[in-house]
Amino acid sequence: MLEDPYAVLRALLRAEAVRNAPKPSRPGPRPRPETQERQERQQPPKDRGRG
User: Which residues are CB-contacts of 8 (< 8 A; sequence separation ≥ 6)?
Assistant: First the structure.
């Protein structure tokens, strides 16, 4: 038998505390520069001086 009968309870409490701890906010993924350039190239040229 275990020497410390409360060891399992403490481990369960620690695990529950970790599970319920607030998660650190992570910034979302940044678009890669080549993706941004590709998006700009796909946009139609702006209308200049027509009218």
Answer: 2
Q: How far apart are CA 2 and CA 7, in angstroms?
A: 8
DSSP per residue, 32-44: PHHHHHHHHHHSP
- State the Cα–Cα distance between residues 28 and 32, nearest whole angstrom: 12
- Residue 13 DSSP SS3: helix
Q: Residues in the chain, how many? A: 51
Amino acid at site 12 = L
pTM of the model: 0.40
Write down the residue that tokens 């941004």 correspond to: 36
Instruction: Encode pLDDT of 19-48 as tens digits.
Output: 998 887 777 777 666 665 666 667 666 666
